[in-house]
Amino acid sequence: MKDNFCVIMGGGIGSRFWPFSRENKPKQFLDFFGTGRSLLQQTFDRFSQIIPTENIFIATNELYADLVKEQLPEITDSQILKEPTRRNTAPCIAYASYHIQAINPNANIVVTPADHLILQEQHFLKNIQTGLNFVSKFPSLLTLGVKPSRPETGYGYIQTKEGGKDNIQEVKAFTEKPNPELAQIFFESGDFFWNSGIFIWNVNVILDAFKLYLPDINVRLAQGIGLYNTPKEKEFINEVYPTCQNISIDYGIMEKADNVYMLVADFGWSDLGNWASVYDLTDKDEGKNAVLKCKSLFIESKDNLVTLADGKLAVVQGLDNYIVAESDNVLLICKRDEEQRIKQIVADVKMKYGEEYM
Amino acid sequence: MKDNFCVIMGGGIGSRFWPFSRENKPKQFLDFFGTGRSLLQQTFDRFSQIIPTENIFIATNELYADLVKEQLPEITDSQILKEPTRRNTAPCIAYASYHIQAINPNANIVVTPADHLILQEQHFLKNIQTGLNFVSKFPSLLTLGVKPSRPETGYGYIQTKEGGKDNIQEVKAFTEKPNPELAQIFFESGDFFWNSGIFIWNVNVILDAFKLYLPDINVRLAQGIGLYNTPKEKEFINEVYPTCQNISIDYGIMEKADNVYMLVADFGWSDLGNWASVYDLTDKDEGKNAVLKCKSLFIESKDNLVTLADGKLAVVQGLDNYIVAESDNVLLICKRDEEQRIKQIVADVKMKYGEEYM
Predict the structure, then answer these.
(1) Cα–Cα distance between B273 and B70 in angstroms, integer?
(2) Cα–Cα distance, A260 to A262 (Å, whole number)
(3) Of A311, A326, A335, the CB nearest to B317
(4) Are A141 and A206 in contact (CB under 8 A)?
(5) Which ipTM did the prediction report?
(6) What are phi and psi of B315, to 5 degrees?
(7) Confidence at residue B351, expressed as pLDDT on a 0 to 100 scale
(8) What pLDDT was estimated at residue A94?
(9) Is residue B133 packed enough to be buried (19+ CB in 10 Å), middle (13-18) or exposed (0-12)?
């Protein structure tokens, strides 16, 4: 138990949920479904049931350190690993690994995004336990794969070799997001799983993989051995971290390593990657309107996704298939089929009005 | 000058602009076009240029007395004529007339709604002066008629006899709101004018008309002679006013009296009776989107009317011909062509959620 650690990665800034998410309060800090807890808080709550609270670290951009402290008053400052710049998942994981190695040189670590949704918590915790047991015995890089429930084109897939034990299978290949035809083939084959972005490994095994597959990142961050988990860590990281290559752990290590295994997860998972996934996960009325947080009255309207602030009322007449999202000083109305344009819309708003509505 | 008085009628509670207007802040108290002054304040500002401030009275429902004081700090409590219940324009005008008669038995009075828009103030003031001069010489009931600029079906019309002097014509008939065919005929004839709801008369002439055409209302309110403009007025009105018949001045007197004249008004007038009239009066972008108060970005969207709170941003993609109106705790999205349904929608909201969003 004391060897088990968790790194919650919460440094993202995605604009796909703007105006609900903002630069100064991105998705992981939001409470999408009105549960009273943000996605980050929910992630923390889940892991704190099986991992000692002091072994849970939040890796985030420096900008969000105060927000993390505010949302997780139960952790200490030293549990927030502050990235001075955005450098994707590989440098973040290398940094966290060196930091944790300095605390416990035999740590087993779960690495997880801060902003995913888990529906069946008990299944999830059982899966994580299984994974921690596995990596404590086998020097492997374990990833959690989700059995596809539809031919989703929005996720990367993991293909496994046949066989495997303890519901854990050897990985054959990681694949990028497929086109619809390929997604259909993946869905039907049974060998393909959604890449959840949740990883479990021993600290030495992942650092060995960095030495082998991302030696440049490793050399830079290995210079700090002796400084990690000391007052000198921050200065070192501020200097070296920005010089690291911007690369994902999937692309930099998981696609290349030969000791990659996958645990078949069965806990009801969504990366909440876009409004469509939020719509899918929300209860709908008879007109298939989904409402988050606010109150509503729909008249001759269907297939809409509406979210206003808590306690507000949306009255919608004669509208089909739109996203209506209001937060703070912005109201966005956008066709549901065109939500991929939100990113560009945000850029247009920034161009026209500057930072005011970011 | 000292014989000239004005009664601004501001007791309405219309729900056609909900959620922009609310039961506790109806249309006359709102600043539609972001001028910094509400419609009531604008009406007061206009008249105070030609009528002594102390001769301007606001007739309103008791509920709104505080709001009137707040918006017009320059008037005294005694200038607010409080109606204990809603009883349409005839009882309101009779009450105000008796009150003013007690102050000045030879008063000439302009009666005006609080919530109309006047575009050309100098023309307006000149028209009012002309009217006040006329009624000080001739014992007539003068109404202001607006030359129609379109075959509008939303207004009542006044038909005049041929001839007339000083741009003032004798009235042949008042007509209700016409159907589209009739409105076209009215528009083309040249003898028909929009009924602006602004009246000018000597206090004794209008009270004589009450004696003749609405004797029941007159008898009730005439009992208060001797009490008006004294500390006993309030108690008398609270007791008697609710017993008065609910009837409009048009229907009760103007349609029946034989001394009714009309002054042709040329000051750019709108009763702001619905969102369509607000849309017509607002500057539009190249996509014919009209925006009140807030900032906006339209993408593939046209013919919309959007109003959020000051300083907020509306981003609208792929939407045509809607009203998007947000105020305080309510957002309404409704087809522009179906705004006549707002009244029913408000009733539905009240049924579902009670007073919270009224």
Answers:
(1) 24
(2) 7
(3) A335
(4) yes
(5) 0.86
(6) -115, 120
(7) 94
(8) 98
(9) middle
